[in-house]
Amino acid sequence: MSKPLNVLFLCTHNSARSILAEAVLNAVGKGRFRGFSAGSSPRENQQPNPMALRVLKEAGIATEGLSSKSWDVFAQPDAPRMDLIITVCDNAAGEMCPIWPGHPATAHWGYADPSEVQGDEEARHRAFRATLHAIKRRLDILVNLPQDRLQALALQQTARELALQA
């Protein structure tokens, strides 16, 4: 593969699940993938959820440069061209998305929102860790797929099949 596959993770607020996915893919992507994230209604002040940043740091995954941003950024003509767009929350999956340049493959990988977990800090921490691990399991499979499963026509089917992985 001459250039990495660009993958955009979408979630409404771009503060937890999509941020986790972006950071994990950039950590495990082996130079074959580049992760990005965005949302339809990004979090104020472009700050990801502090608990998301905490569990990433605890897992040894870099958090520098992570920010909550609008998906409109990636619909601009000068934006990186995406090969695959994955919604990670049910709300974003149901929203009217921009028309993406290049018509990338799409898939939905739904995860429960860890920021909605009620309880003490330890309960919320466990929820974020569980979401991080669930995302990482799918991304580990994706980055280790053979090249033929990542070709443009096969990529969408492959990504959608991964949604069925536990």
Write a structural description.
The chain has 166 residues and is an alpha/beta fold. Helix content is 36%, strand content 12%. It is globular and about 45 Å long. The mean pLDDT is 89. The chain has helices spanning 17-28, 50-58, 90-94, 121-143, 152-162; strands at 5-10, 33-38, 84-87, 105-108.
Strand content: 5-15%
Helix content: 25-40%
Gross morphology is globular
Uncertain runs are none
Question: What keywords describe this structure?
Answer:
5 helices; 4 strands; alpha/beta; 166 residues; four-stranded parallel beta sheet; globular
Outline the secondary-structure elements.
Layout: E1 5-10, H1 17-28, E2 33-38, H2 50-58, E3 84-87, H3 90-94, E4 105-108, H4 121-143, H5 152-162
Parallel strand pairs: 1-2, 1-3, 3-4
Short structural description:
The chain is of the alpha/beta class. The protein contains 5 helices and 4 strands, in the order βαβαβαβαα. A 4-stranded parallel sheet has the order 2-1-3-4.
